[in-house]
Write a structure and sequence with these properties.
The chain is 29% helix and 30% strand. By secondary structure, it is of the alpha/beta class.
């Protein structure tokens, strides 16, 4: 449901109406990047936009806290489902880099676990040089801080994702998440809390909901409008052709 929610937000933000992904117009002038999106979603997005999916630990790589300088301002949208809770501290840098990757009207569409607590639970604020070890039947995280202090954390939490197991570095609070996004430079941030049963989006709680961070007001450029007009024209021609065939049969 997280992925359905993410795509619902993308549809509403870009087109103003709820569309399933197969019904999106093909707009190759729109450039997007995914951060470990699931394969089924990534393939379909690549068919609609100039989109590529990326990973932190394998090709094609994109480190969201250290993106290549030439990528700056290149994208119209970024999709990210359950990623920012795994970014090593300070997580604020990840939101700043996402902002830098987007063009003037860019969108960061994301899902991330968050709570309604007053503050974010940062599990390993001094994480620097670290590894994992088995002690008995338990896994422990061993960290050496920048000052050289050794830390040991028992029973670290992992999430199973596209690339395998990923360490949970934090659980955001809604308040801190909103503040971090706006502090990175985004002009606005909206949480999509409403249900949309036609897409199977029925939330069982009022937190960890899909959201969008907007760099500016979304707008289509002239080349994108031409693409949309051409697609509409071709669809109309195809429709009249099918109707003509049916009339000849009758």
């Amino acid at each position: 449901m997280r992925v359905r929610g993410l795509l619902y937000v993308l549809s509403m933000e870009m087109f103003g109406v709820a569309m399933i992904l197969p019904d999106f117009p093909q707009l190759k002038s729109i450039r997007g990047v995914g951060t470990s999106d699931i394969t089924a979603c990534a393939i379909r997005l690549a068919g609609k936009f100039d989109y590529r999916n990326t990973f932190y630990d394998r090709e094609p790589r994109l480190d969201i806290v250290n993106p290549p300088a030439e990528e700056s301002g290149r994208y119209h949208f970024i999709t990210s489902s359950e990623v920012f809770e795994h970014v090593l501290p300070p997580v604020e840098r990840a939101f700043e880099c996402a902002y830098e990757l987007l063009g003037p009207s860019g969108l960061l569409v994301l899902t991330v676990p968050y709570s309604i607590e007053t503050s974010t639970a940062e599990h390993y604020p001094d994480l620097h040089e670290f590894g994992f070890a088995e002690v008995g039947s338990h896994v422990v995280l061993v960290n050496r801080t920048r000052s050289g202090e050794l830390q040991v954390f028992e029973n670290p939490v992992f999430h199973l994702g596209v690339g395998g197991k990923a360490l949970e570095a934090r659980e955001f609070s809604e308040r801190d998440l909103r503040q971090a996004i706006l502090a990175a430079g985004f002009s606005s941030m909206q949480i999509y809390a409403e249900n949309y049963p036609p897409f199977g989006i029925v939330h069982s709680e009022s937190w960890s909901l899909p959201m969008v961070a907007r760099k500016g007001e979304w707008q289509f450029k002239a080349d994108t409008i031409r693409e949309m007009a051409s697609e509409w024209r071709d669809a109309k021609v195809a429709l009249w052709t099918r109707l003509g065939r049916k009339l000849r049969v009758y």
